[in-house]
Design a protein that fits this description.
Elements lengths: L8 H25 L2 H8 L3 H7 L3 H21 L7 H18 L1 H12 L6 H24 L8 H17 L1 H8 L5 H17 L3
């Protein structure tokens, strides 16, 4: 889908406004439940004005997902083979938790897409994401083989990090309802996950 990049300051501003509005709408209603009318209303623009920038709801959604995916991969890219293995993995846990804290709407957008079968992200998941995970799996296996960490399944280690960090964005309402006021779930989670993964990764 070929979307021409905006050229003027007003075009850049309106494009950003539309994408921010769409993020709110998609993260709340999912792709199927969201409408162009809702996005236009959230953006404070008319529907014809919105359609000047994006030809369809899918074009907006694909643009958001494309921007998100690159950001989503950055924390895993930062894991370095030459670093201390436990600290490199704990650093990844911390960065993923920070993303859940700082980008909760983006996390829910991604989760909604995956739950629906990833119809607009299958190619990226099977290429960019898989290639990066495969690269890090080799590193983790090497650490385990050399005895620097416990012999854990690298794929399921990464899956568990995703599950235990993204949960704090995707189920934010539930977490706050259970914890009650006055508690910082992210600070508590970081301390808890550090202990959990330190023990898991400790060599036998």
């Amino acid at each position: 889908m070929n979307i021409q990049p905006p050229r003027t300051r007003i075009q850049r501003k309106n494009t950003k406004t539309i994408l921010n509005a769409a993020l709110q709408v998609f993260s709340q209603h999912g792709f199927r439940g969201a409408t162009l009318d809702q996005i236009a209303r959230e953006a404070g623009l008319s529907k014809p004005n919105l359609l000047y920038y994006f030809p369809s709801k899918e074009a907006i959604h694909v643009t958001l997902l494309s921007q998100l995916m690159d950001t989503w991969l950055d924390p895993l890219r930062e894991m370095k083979p030459e670093g201390d293995p436990v600290e490199e993995l704990l650093g990844y846990v911390r960065r993923k938790l920070q993303m859940s804290r700082d980008f909760p709407l983006e996390s829910r957008l991604f989760a909604n897409e995956i739950v629906q079968g990833a119809p607009r992200m299958q190619e990226v998941l099977a290429t960019d994401l898989k290639a990066l995970v495969d690269e890090k799996v080799v590193i983790i296996r090497g650490w385990a083989k050399s005895g620097q960490i416990a012999d854990v399944d690298p794929h399921h280690l990464i899956f568990s990090i995703w599950a235990l960090t993204q949960h704090y964005a995707d189920f934010d309402v539930q977490i706050h309802a259970v914890l009650g006021p006055g508690r910082d779930p992210f600070a508590e989670a970081e301390a808890f996950l550090r202990v959990l993964f330190t023990r898991l990764l400790a060599p036998a």
